[in-house]
Design goal:
Layout: H1 2-17, E1 20-29, E2 35-44, E3 49-55, E4 64-68, E5 71-75, E6 84-88, H2 97-102, H3 106-115, E7 121-122, H4 131-143, H5 153-168
Antiparallel strand pairs: 1-2, 2-3, 4-5, 5-6, 6-7
Length: 169
């Protein structure tokens, strides 16, 4: 599960906050010893902290929230095909634990999505949420590049190292 699900939030954390200097992790395993859920806290070299969770056994919030001194930005769920960003000013509280739990339900998520249309910025991805990835790959290929500046080889290796470290904890 870590190699399947955790790579996405780990990569986003590295892109947003940079290299990791330390990690705390708890991994839940089933009776066969297979990892089925994990919670990871990353301490970034630049001083930021990432709090990540992945699971095969429960539905999670599926959003991204970055908080700083000047306010917060939330990529609204579902994270990997998100089309809405919400910006809030400094001192605004994070969504309540009750709301974060409630929006794990797909119906509540859809209703919340409708309600946020007036307070969030809409960024449609077009016909396919993967079109931007394909365009990026094609542009790299045409330029003769062997590495993406967004998902670099070094970041990919760092994610693999973090996954392996989490498995050992």
């Amino acid at each position: 599960m870590l190699a399947d699900r955790a790579v996405y939030p780990l990569m986003l954390a590295l892109i947003a906050l940079g290299p990791v200097r330390g990690m705390r992790c708890s991994v839940d395993r089933d009776a066969a010893g297979i990892d089925v859920a994990a919670r990871l806290t990353l301490d970034h070299a630049g001083g930021g902290v990432s709090d990540l969770a992945v699971s095969f056994v429960e539905r999670l919030d599926n959003s991204l929230r970055i908080v700083g001194d000047g306010g917060a930005v939330e990529v609204q769920p579902p994270l990997l095909t998100a089309q809405r960003l919400r910006f809030t000013g400094p001192g605004r509280a994070a969504p309540s634990p009750l709301w974060r739990h409630a929006r794990q339900n797909p119906l509540v998520r859809r209703l919340g999505d409708l309600g946020s249309r007036g307070s969030a910025r809409w960024h449609p991805f077009g016909a396919s949420p993967y079109a931007h990835e394909i365009e990026h790959f094609v542009a790299l290929h045409r330029a003769g590049a062997i590495e993406s500046p967004v998902i670099s080889h070094a970041r990919t290796v760092e994610v693999a190292r973090l996954v392996e470290q989490a498995r050992r904890l």
